[in-house]
Amino acid sequence: MNTKSIEIRRIDSCIGIKIGLRNANLIVIFGERGYVMCSYLNIKTAEKLGDVACIISGVSEIDDAINARIEKISKNARRLGIREGMLVKDVLKFLS
Questions:
Q1: The pLDDT of residue 81 is above 90
Q2: At the fourth CATH level, which superfamily is domain 2-95?
Q3: How does pLDDT run across 62-77, given as a tens digit for each residue?
Q4: Has this prediction a pTM greater than 0.85?
Q5: CA torsion angle for 56, 57, 58, 61 (degrees, to 10)?
Q6: 66 Cβ neighbours under 8 A, 6+ residues apart
Q7: Is the Cα dihedral 60, 17, 63, 29 positive or negative?
Q8: DSSP string spanning 34-76?
Q9: Domain residue spans in the chain?
């Protein structure tokens, strides 16, 4: 498992986690209000739990995730102003 502190607005307010699984890496970036997760995880469950959640895919490293585009979002993410197609590095401002 690897972790990386991600600086947002000059403070370390998000943390990226990479877990090497058998067939792929699991990537999640957590902020105070919500998270960005790779498509290995389930947006339907996040929605059911009322989470602020965003989905990305095609990434295997935390740095790749930061530069990826959001593919799916939960209703609560949309309420914060997050939209599909946004870059994760811009979305982290909403989550921190």
A1: yes
A2: Hypothetical protein YunC (3.30.1980.10)
A3: 999 999 999 999 999 9
A4: yes
A5: 50
A6: 6, 16, 29, 88, 89, 92
A7: positive
A8: -EEEETTS-HHHHHHTT--EEEE-S--SHHHHHTSBP-EE-HH
A9: 2-95
